[in-house]
Amino acid sequence: MLREILELLTAAGLVALVAVPVGLLAVLLARRFAFPLLPAWRHRWCQWRVIDVILLFGMYVMLPTLAGDLLERGGVYRAVFGDDALLDPTSVGAIVGGPGTSLAEAWRYDRIARRTTLAGAIAMPLFALGFFLLRRLGNTERAVTSRRIPADIAVGVGVWLAVTPLTFLVHFLANLIAKEYGYEPDAHPLKFAKLQTPLQVGLLFLGACVAAPFYEEMIFRRALLPWASGRIARSWGLMAVAALVAWVRMNDRSMFPAPLAFVLIATILIAIIANLRRIWPRFLTRPACAIVSTATLFAAMHSAVWPTPIPLFVLGLGLGWVVSRTRTVTAAVVVHGLFNAISALSLLRNA
User: Fold this and answer.
1) Which residues form the domain of 59?
2) Phi, psi at residue 42, to the nearest 5°?
3) Which of 137, 147, 206, 307 is deepest in the core (most CB within 10 A)?
4) What DSSP string describes 158-225?
5) How many distinct structural domains can be found in the chain?
6) What is the pLDDT of residues 156-180, one digit of tens each?
7) What are 95's strand-pairing partners?
8) Rounded to two decimals, what is the model's pTM?
């Protein structure tokens, strides 16, 4: 545990050496462009419809898949990865991620992760274009100008500095409690990725720091969050989906029914928030419920690696707040990318 803490602190310090100067430069540029770091609060937001959300999810699933199929048929995977894109059996132990997880599963994960990263990165411009067209055709939200980007980057760095220590604190507390009850926390399969060439390292950072933050923030915070902010009933619907996802994705080793209990506790929190206006009339109930419900669904998606959903819920709250406050996804992508960069850099240092 102490070794892991020191590794993450070192990695976080290295990431901060780059992120903080960039954030300060972004503050200066935002002032030069006369853009406030946090714009005035706007109650009305993008009015997504159900069909809009379905279309966005469809693009999220289909575009990387289509890109992957084209890369496969074009022989790009073979040219990039060679005949064998699997892990070297000598690079990991016989058991990966704890009892019940085989070396073959780690090989399969590594192969899929590399190919998915490459396909997802290629599909990113298409997804961004589809999102732009859907927003312009489906609703009247005002477009964000490029001069706003420095302010969003500055806010993203600031939120990352605030949220990251709290998230890692919850992470270590959750692991300690799990061990106290005799459960060894699951090891993320990414820890066993093969990092022996510049291409492998580049794919790791591309996937963890660019592709994953982009897609996850576009879906959870840019599509679902404003949609759920329209009505409280939508947040309840997302909680039902989160419970289903937690049940489907939790592995055989999960502290059953821990993932479902986690969603239940978050549901109780939603119920409390939904009734806060009785004692606090000016409380923004719908945005708060939307932030909690999307954070819960985001965390539940990671139920296969328990107790990872608990700290990721904290991260999701911070990401939801920054998107609700800025009305753009840029700052959230910065926060998410920098957060993942700590883990990626820690893996690289131990490779």
Assistant:
1) 2-350
2) -120, 125
3) 307
4) HHHHHHHHHHHHHHHHHHHHHHHTT-PPPPPGGGG----SHHHHHHHHHIIIIIHHHHHIIIIIIIIH
5) 1
6) 999 999 999 999 999 999 999 888 8
7) 102
8) 0.88
